[in-house]
Design brief:
Elements lengths: L4 H42 L9 H30 L2 H32 L4 H22 L2 H19 L5 H21 L2
Helix pairs in contact: 1-2, 1-6, 2-3, 4-5, 4-6, 5-6
Protein backbone atom coordinates (compact mmCIF):
# COMPACT_ATOMS: atom_id res chain seq x y z
CA UNK A 1 0.00 0.00 0.00
CA UNK A 2 1.40 3.34 -0.99
CA UNK A 3 0.56 6.59 0.64
CA UNK A 4 -0.69 9.37 -1.55
CA UNK A 5 0.40 12.94 -1.03
CA UNK A 6 -3.12 13.80 0.19
CA UNK A 7 -3.09 10.93 2.71
CA UNK A 8 0.33 12.00 4.00
CA UNK A 9 -0.81 15.60 4.37
CA UNK A 10 -3.94 14.51 6.23
CA UNK A 11 -1.87 12.29 8.54
CA UNK A 12 0.56 15.14 9.30
CA UNK A 13 -2.37 17.47 10.00
CA UNK A 14 -3.85 14.90 12.42
CA UNK A 15 -0.48 14.57 14.17
CA UNK A 16 -0.16 18.36 14.50
CA UNK A 17 -3.69 18.60 15.90
CA UNK A 18 -3.00 15.83 18.42
CA UNK A 19 0.25 17.54 19.43
CA UNK A 20 -1.53 20.87 20.05
CA UNK A 21 -4.27 19.18 22.08
CA UNK A 22 -1.70 17.26 24.10
CA UNK A 23 0.28 20.44 24.81
CA UNK A 24 -2.86 22.28 25.92
CA UNK A 25 -3.86 19.44 28.25
CA UNK A 26 -0.32 19.35 29.70
CA UNK A 27 -0.40 23.10 30.38
CA UNK A 28 -3.87 22.85 31.90
CA UNK A 29 -2.73 20.11 34.28
CA UNK A 30 0.40 22.06 35.26
CA UNK A 31 -1.69 25.21 35.90
CA UNK A 32 -4.35 23.47 37.98
CA UNK A 33 -2.54 23.59 41.36
CA UNK A 34 -1.76 27.30 40.92
CA UNK A 35 -5.40 28.07 40.17
CA UNK A 36 -6.61 26.07 43.16
CA UNK A 37 -4.09 27.81 45.45
CA UNK A 38 -4.81 31.37 44.31
CA UNK A 39 -8.54 30.68 44.20
CA UNK A 40 -8.41 29.65 47.86
CA UNK A 41 -6.38 32.77 48.69
CA UNK A 42 -8.99 34.99 47.02
CA UNK A 43 -11.79 33.25 48.90
CA UNK A 44 -10.01 33.67 52.25
CA UNK A 45 -9.01 37.22 51.36
CA UNK A 46 -12.62 38.11 50.68
CA UNK A 47 -13.40 37.42 54.31
CA UNK A 48 -10.65 39.70 55.64
CA UNK A 49 -12.58 42.99 55.82
CA UNK A 50 -15.14 41.35 58.09
CA UNK A 51 -12.86 40.29 61.00
CA UNK A 52 -10.08 42.86 60.39
CA UNK A 53 -11.72 46.08 59.20
CA UNK A 54 -8.90 48.36 60.41
CA UNK A 55 -6.14 47.26 58.02
CA UNK A 56 -6.88 44.45 55.59
CA UNK A 57 -3.74 45.33 53.57
CA UNK A 58 -1.50 43.58 56.10
CA UNK A 59 -3.60 40.43 55.94
CA UNK A 60 -3.51 40.53 52.12
CA UNK A 61 0.27 40.93 52.23
CA UNK A 62 0.51 37.82 54.40
CA UNK A 63 -1.83 35.87 52.10
CA UNK A 64 0.08 36.98 49.00
CA UNK A 65 3.40 36.04 50.58
CA UNK A 66 2.06 32.58 51.42
CA UNK A 67 0.73 32.33 47.86
CA UNK A 68 4.06 33.27 46.27
CA UNK A 69 5.97 30.81 48.45
CA UNK A 70 3.45 28.06 47.74
CA UNK A 71 3.64 28.89 44.00
CA UNK A 72 7.41 28.49 44.08
CA UNK A 73 6.95 25.12 45.77
CA UNK A 74 4.38 24.07 43.16
CA UNK A 75 6.80 25.10 40.40
CA UNK A 76 9.58 23.07 42.03
CA UNK A 77 7.28 20.06 42.43
CA UNK A 78 6.16 20.31 38.81
CA UNK A 79 9.79 20.41 37.68
CA UNK A 80 10.64 17.30 39.70
CA UNK A 81 7.57 15.47 38.42
CA UNK A 82 8.44 16.33 34.83
CA UNK A 83 12.06 15.29 35.34
CA UNK A 84 11.12 11.84 36.61
CA UNK A 85 8.48 11.04 33.99
CA UNK A 86 9.91 12.44 30.76
CA UNK A 87 12.75 11.65 28.41
CA UNK A 88 15.86 13.79 28.68
CA UNK A 89 14.62 16.23 26.02
CA UNK A 90 11.10 16.24 27.46
CA UNK A 91 12.40 16.75 30.99
CA UNK A 92 14.57 19.68 29.94
CA UNK A 93 11.64 21.27 28.10
CA UNK A 94 9.36 20.67 31.08
CA UNK A 95 11.82 22.20 33.53
CA UNK A 96 12.21 25.21 31.26
CA UNK A 97 8.41 25.58 31.07
CA UNK A 98 7.99 25.25 34.87
CA UNK A 99 10.64 27.90 35.54
CA UNK A 100 9.10 30.24 32.98
CA UNK A 101 5.63 29.77 34.47
CA UNK A 102 6.91 30.42 38.01
CA UNK A 103 8.99 33.43 36.94
CA UNK A 104 6.08 34.87 34.95
CA UNK A 105 3.82 34.52 37.99
CA UNK A 106 6.38 36.40 40.09
CA UNK A 107 6.61 39.21 37.51
CA UNK A 108 2.83 39.55 37.37
CA UNK A 109 2.60 39.63 41.17
CA UNK A 110 5.31 42.29 41.38
CA UNK A 111 3.67 44.35 38.61
CA UNK A 112 0.32 44.23 40.40
CA UNK A 113 1.81 45.12 43.76
CA UNK A 114 3.80 48.06 42.38
CA UNK A 115 0.89 49.34 40.28
CA UNK A 116 -1.36 49.47 43.32
CA UNK A 117 1.35 51.27 45.32
CA UNK A 118 2.10 53.81 42.59
CA UNK A 119 -1.49 54.60 41.62
CA UNK A 120 -2.80 54.34 45.16
CA UNK A 121 -6.18 52.76 44.75
CA UNK A 122 -8.39 54.99 46.86
CA UNK A 123 -10.69 52.22 47.99
CA UNK A 124 -10.54 48.49 48.51
CA UNK A 125 -13.20 48.20 45.80
CA UNK A 126 -10.92 49.87 43.25
CA UNK A 127 -7.97 47.68 44.24
CA UNK A 128 -9.98 44.47 44.04
CA UNK A 129 -11.61 45.44 40.74
CA UNK A 130 -8.13 46.16 39.34
CA UNK A 131 -6.92 42.74 40.51
CA UNK A 132 -9.90 41.05 38.85
CA UNK A 133 -9.43 42.94 35.57
CA UNK A 134 -5.69 42.19 35.51
CA UNK A 135 -6.29 38.52 36.27
CA UNK A 136 -8.91 38.36 33.54
CA UNK A 137 -6.54 39.96 31.04
CA UNK A 138 -3.85 37.43 31.93
CA UNK A 139 -6.29 34.54 31.56
CA UNK A 140 -7.58 35.83 28.22
CA UNK A 141 -4.01 36.22 26.95
CA UNK A 142 -3.17 32.69 28.04
CA UNK A 143 -6.33 31.47 26.38
CA UNK A 144 -5.25 32.94 23.07
CA UNK A 145 -2.04 30.90 23.23
CA UNK A 146 -3.11 27.79 25.11
CA UNK A 147 -6.82 27.09 25.01
CA UNK A 148 -10.40 28.20 25.44
CA UNK A 149 -10.71 27.28 29.12
CA UNK A 150 -8.67 30.32 30.14
CA UNK A 151 -10.86 32.60 28.01
CA UNK A 152 -14.01 31.25 29.67
CA UNK A 153 -12.50 31.91 33.12
CA UNK A 154 -11.53 35.45 32.07
CA UNK A 155 -15.02 36.24 30.79
CA UNK A 156 -16.71 35.01 33.98
CA UNK A 157 -14.35 36.89 36.27
CA UNK A 158 -14.30 40.24 34.47
CA UNK A 159 -18.07 40.24 33.95
CA UNK A 160 -18.73 39.57 37.64
CA UNK A 161 -16.15 42.10 38.85
CA UNK A 162 -17.29 44.92 36.58
CA UNK A 163 -20.95 44.25 37.31
CA UNK A 164 -20.29 44.37 41.06
CA UNK A 165 -18.18 47.51 40.70
CA UNK A 166 -20.45 49.57 38.46
CA UNK A 167 -23.69 48.54 40.18
CA UNK A 168 -22.13 49.37 43.56
CA UNK A 169 -23.12 46.00 44.94
CA UNK A 170 -23.11 45.93 48.76
CA UNK A 171 -20.01 44.12 50.01
CA UNK A 172 -18.36 44.56 46.62
CA UNK A 173 -14.90 43.36 47.74
CA UNK A 174 -16.11 40.03 49.15
CA UNK A 175 -18.29 39.54 46.04
CA UNK A 176 -15.30 40.09 43.70
CA UNK A 177 -13.09 37.90 45.91
CA UNK A 178 -15.69 35.15 45.87
CA UNK A 179 -16.05 35.45 42.08
CA UNK A 180 -12.29 35.36 41.59
CA UNK A 181 -11.72 32.54 44.04
CA UNK A 182 -14.60 30.42 42.79
CA UNK A 183 -13.69 31.00 39.13
CA UNK A 184 -10.05 30.04 39.75
CA UNK A 185 -10.89 26.99 41.83
CA UNK A 186 -13.52 25.73 39.38
CA UNK A 187 -11.05 26.43 36.55
CA UNK A 188 -8.35 24.52 38.43
CA UNK A 189 -10.64 21.52 38.84
CA UNK A 190 -11.75 21.78 35.21
CA UNK A 191 -8.12 21.88 34.05
CA UNK A 192 -7.08 19.05 36.35
CA UNK A 193 -9.63 16.79 34.67
CA UNK A 194 -8.42 17.80 31.22
Amino acid sequence: MTLTQTDAAAALKDIATAHEQSRALFVYQMASPYLLLWGAIWLVGGLIPVPIPANPSIAWLVLDTVGVLASIYIGYTNMRRISTTATDNGAAAGRKWAWRYTATSAVIFLFSFLTIIVFEARTAQQGMTFAAILTSAIFASLGIWIGLRYVVMAAILVTTALTAHFLHVPYEVPVICFAGGATMMMGGLWMRRA
